[in-house]
């Protein structure tokens, strides 16, 4: 099977002043998206920033972002409903009003460095249900192995998502979540046994776990997420120059693993997203 590459170019945590290459304006985001598409990305996981480069869930900006990415690229647009740790639930739910192809849905609360990334059960159910009602395909974000048990419970009680396919993303190496190691990746993959047959997984490693997780997930038959949301260091002492640099590296490794980057059309089919 080919490799689905998702790029997460911005995130909510990296500081533009410290990392000038971080795309924060709409123009920067669109330019990054085009470059990443040309080197193998099929999905873009989007957080947006305000004029001061701070994270925002502003409705007008979200809609303009979805529109621009659709106009300028063929990428599948996935909006983050995780936002920043300070974002309230109602604003995170309202992200869906911008009508993206996909949205993230984090499957539980986790310590997030010195902060708490709060995801109450009722909130998760509301996200899952609203997404299904609107035909938005979720990517279930798994920060800890127990989140897979919560996902099995969610699907058992509330049914399959829009499109009928279940896709999860292991976000590894967050201080407070599961470590970004091969052992943990294998444990998480095994813990998927209670999910519907055909469930697919991607993985991303934060910071220094980026490369171990990238190599492990390719070897384990998984898909990959890369981008400056997750790492701003390409190699020891070498800052990331661009998101496309990270996508190109992932695409090269995927080819080496005989699992070349998946086309957007194939990604749509896999994830159950209408063309
Ligand atoms: N920024 C983190 C608090 C997501 O996008 O869904 C949450 C996050 C997950 O990035
Ligand atoms: Zn995110």
From TrEMBL:
Single GO MF descriptor: metal ion binding
Swiss-Prot/TrEMBL keywords: Metal-binding, Transferase, Zinc
Keyword Zinc set for record: yes
InterPro entries, A to Z: Aldolase_TIM, BKACE
Cofactor list: Zn(2+)
Claim: Metal-binding is one of the keywords in the record: yes
Protein's recorded name: 3-keto-5-aminohexanoate cleavage protein
